[in-house]
Amino acid sequence: MLKGEARPPQSPLKDMKYVVVSGGVLSGLGKGVTASSIGVLLKSAGLRVTAVKIDPYLNSDAGTMSPFEHGEVFVLDDGGEADLDLGNYERFCGLDLYKDNNITTGKIYSQVIEAERRGDYLGKTVQVIPHITDAIQDWIERISAVSADGSGETPEACVIELGGTVGDIESSPFIEALRQFQFRVGRENICFVHVSLVPVMGPVGEQKTKPTQHTVKELRGLGITPDVIVCRAEAPLAKETREKLAAFCHVSPNAVMSAHDVSNIYRVPLLLRDQGICDALDIDCNATDLMSRWEDMADRVDNLGDDVHIAMVGKYTGLSDSYLSVIKGLEHASYAVNRTLVIDWIEAENLVDTTHSDWDVLRNAHGILVPGGFGVRGIEGKILAAEYARTNQVPYLGICLGLQVATIEFCRNVLDLEGANSTEFDENTPNPAVVFMPEISKTHLGGTMRLGSRPTIFQVDDCMTKRLYGGVSQVDERHRHRYEVNPDLIEKIESAGLVYVGKDETGQRCEIFELRGHPYYVGVQYHPEFKSRPEKPSPPFLGLLKAASGETV
Ligand code: GLN
Asked: Is 400 a catalytic residue?
């Protein structure tokens, strides 16, 4: 479709509302939370919602990116390895998104270059405008028509978050595509929301508007006039700040939103609603009971009971974004048991030194969680944490690598299999407890793991995890791994009390273990954190929090 051309009447865009969320001044302003909160408001207006995240980097997906640099890799049902913002959308808006809901420069360019090689543009010079910008718009149009809320029906509203900061070279083709997109869908069907920062300076704590003025000027220079400005600030925006921003940024004062610090994340949609963002979006967000449920949840989260300490034994412990969904999983479960969650971060490597103060932290925790991970660093410490939990009856949840290290520990210390290890960490181990899965590629690292939603079939009726999942016979959870428990050892391990109560559909691959005679010693090969929701905590997390709070699971 050419620039500015009217959309065809049969276009899925016909009744679609788009909300584009961009950001300025600096990264990490909470654009994702703003976009998700807008999704919640659209949903509360009774609309079927979906979401798109644009990441202007050249990687095809986030799968090969370090959690150190980019935060966790969020895994989708279809095996997509995406930016963690997709997790925010799923949790806030109750969606199950697809890999195509995450657009990257890498994906768009590969598609256009492939089309060029096929001869699709024969005779033409292939250029950023119109070929890349058209590809972006076509992609958005196509994926926004795909149901993501479980209804199976075409969505009515789509939130599009543009990653990065306006003015970056990388994001300019996307800005240009979105500028054109307003003509494709009709200006009345698209709302531009720009998230900015209002810092405070000087002895009287004056709220400074200049950074926002500049970023809006930049955005307008690129052809996009924001309808709403969301200002991150420590304290609520003063009346004068709001008026000044409106005057300099060409928006109505009612469209300047104060996104100041609040007691918990669930207050953000309420905060935006209370300042009238729904007028700018032209929706009635009281059309359903969703907002009152959010109010209840926000209040509940502010008034949780006694502390429950969970020791998180990982290797990116300085960076909570690296474990964002795991933290969310713990939080959701803590709401269900009405406890205030305290996460005690333990750098796995430190545990190898038995005199390290992290041992005191571990000993004081009510529960221990070993999350997923790759590479050898910290492995021996994680094995020690698993041993400590097993032998001291401390509730333990091992996720993916956490299941694998507990299996290694069990083989070493219960079965006396000397030097037992995963072949990921010791290729020549005399006792491979965890082995490379036969179908996985050793030469291509992008998108080649066992990924996405796979079934787990319960093997026994009487087990904790089956009860936690509500007695179902099968669960579908998301995966991301290359190694598995050595099938040749399963019988031996099970006869010593560590029972693989959940296996894949072939009955060969281990998915869930439970230790007999322990209050809660559970390992899962999948990542339950990706499907945890505030109002519906993930069952393995709920089990951990219950056990850590002294309840029988
Ligand atoms: N490194 C392990 C594997 O590839 C565990 C992966 C994970 O924890 N996500 O199997």
From this structure: yes
